# Entry
Amino acid sequence: MNLDNCDAECKKVEKYIMDGHLEPLENYDAVKEKIIRTEYGSGGELLHRGFYCPSIVADIICGNIKRGRISHSVRSKNCVSFIYGFDDHNRLITVERPFSKEFIVYEDAVEIGIGFSKEGRLETLSQCEYSANGQITSYKFFLLSPGEKRVIEFREERYTYHMDKVIVDQYCYSGLIMTGHRLQHQKFIFTVTEGHLTSYTVEEYHNGEKIPRILDGHVFKVYVKRKI
# Structure
């Protein structure tokens, strides 16, 4: 992944939007009709979809971030951060927050999420790809500039699975004019013990070359129980 790749990904998304393929409110209402079960999430506001964030590592590698909790009923809406809707295949298809909504569509092993404000203004797009056994292999997230239909931030996680480890390549790309096009690449190497992530190390790269870091070789412990 390089700057040209990131720029091409963003332009592809922008063209898709400009070609009129997305009508958020109309599509959301159609997807919402398929809901047969609802769950409620509290906490996790800093993560995309909170408890059901597609990334299996975001809450691990970012400090002081938690996924929150899930309940099947709610006593007070003041305690609700997310409302999740599921279809008859037990797939998450809608996510509602106090000021935004998202609907999710599935195309074979690909999951596409379209997020928008309650007024119908597009805010985010995401795409996840999964292997035949259900493990996530790629998670892309695009943040759009309000009202401009332009990508201002693009993030991607690529997962590589081995018997005793999982490697996550994380790319963060900023398309803001004030900062120029900047790409950050970090590689997280997780140790797997009995099917769970237990520890990890971090490497940083620029233009494909590893950059020396003070914490090179330092082993970070995983304090949440995360099965892969």
In short: The first helix runs from residue 3 to 18.
